[in-house]
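Local shape tokens

___
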Amino acid sequence: MKKNIQTLALSFILTAACTQIAFSQSPKSAGKVFKEGADKDKVYTLGSDKSMNVVLESMKAYNTNDAAKDLSFYSDEVAKESASFINQWHASMKKLNQVPYALVPLRLKGSDEDIVFSWSQENREWKNGSKQKLNLLEIYSVNKEGKITNFTQFQNVPKSNEFGLADGGKIYLKDSTATFTFTNRGEVETVEKMVAAFNKMDASAIADLHTDSITFNHSNGFKEKVASKQFFSSYFDKVQSVNWKIDGILPYKITDTDPESGIMVSGVMKEVFKDGTVSQRKQMIVLSYNLNGKISGADNFTKALKFNANKMDDIKAEIVGLEKKWDGLFNSNDINRIIDLYADDAVRYPNNQATITGKAAIKKAMLQERANLKGSFSTSETIEVFGDENLVTEMGIVRAKDASGKVLSTVRYTTVWKKINGKFQIIREIWNDTAKTK
């Protein structure tokens, strides 16, 4: 429809111009400026072919994809303002081909500049492989020195284009399908404010961006409807810091529907909790954005980030060091300090014995163990460590030896370490005797 209107407008201009020349030896004025300002009510006459040729030659220069040639047709002021963009534009292009269909020079009565209307089709091919075809209506201002002093472009994008369409994609509704289109009601700004508030752990600012009650669909499948202020005020109770880095915001709506929209937000969320544990995940959230510009719901999709294998080497070294510390304290009969390596709710599963729960019970059992091994000492050998920066499973061997170094027993053990308040502590421990030396 837009293309038809533009074609009709140009046809009218051309017809009027030809009629004017046919019925008069000198050009007559036509048209009128309606916009408020100094030029209001002024009329137009035909401009000069010289100005038309300036525009035509500038198109030829543009098609060479030579930024310097392109800029040479503009006034010094415009060339200076546009140089950065035009240089970058041509540097990104592999091929340009603008083909004019019609050019009409006009002049506002009393002005010393011509206005050239151009109707053309342009094919663009980027160096990155993207292609685009456009129907263009362009308006050039050309001064008496033959330089372009202003340029305005209107585009009509064919539906066959690879990108740049006003709508696209497809949503499958109950009885029909529809397309999606971008929206611009402040969604991007709202998300940026929300992310900034999260990183500052400003619960009040976050709640203000949401409706009074919101519906969450969590990544584990749990769905809940909560009061915004109450939910966000308690969200950070166990959190020490938040670092949410977004890498994309996509606001959209179903074409030809009310303005309510959705927002896709992707990024990486890292939360450090007060107990020392760390959560780091790739996150995709689909937000519902209501008619009043508030977030009314969220669908959350997450994926834990792959743990850095190089960092695991550092963690293994830390666990080995803790095991050596355990050996040293146990061998020196310093049970009061060794018990600090255990979490308050730690559980031990001794070989052929009852389960031992809690630090007090573990300490009591350990004092008895040490008494039974009087005159001997133990050494631990860590065989394998796996997990992440928050939770680690260690597998290894402990050998009990007498004063001469003779091995009295060999035990295989599995220990689970959890980072609590920034330090690894034992939360589970199990072992089995494998051999005894008589």
